[in-house]
């Protein structure tokens, strides 16, 4: 079985040549109009851009509420927090946390989600003493 296809594009002109053999022979040679060539090029460029985007480029959101008690402000909450986004536990850090979302919440000692302290599965709660956690990330 032989299959050959070649497309040559020069400014203002596209030439396509093809050969196929499988129990018979078929050959096609032709010139596409400049308008058709530009449309094909635009479609190929759009496809290349679309396939280059990461599948999960938009942040999904956890469903539910993450509750925490801050040292200075009392009870606070985050509704449907975005996955992968580092969120600050404001007002002095958290003394308590309750993960009532549908995804895990990793709690960090620092303000930039770099020093993991504890992970709470959906439905879990924790109390913190001493050095308080200052950030959380979902997902």
TrEMBL record:
| Region listing for Disordered, in residue ranges | 1-30, 114-139
Q: Where is the composition biased (Polar residues)?
A: 122-139
> What's the protein called, per UniProt?
Uncharacterized protein
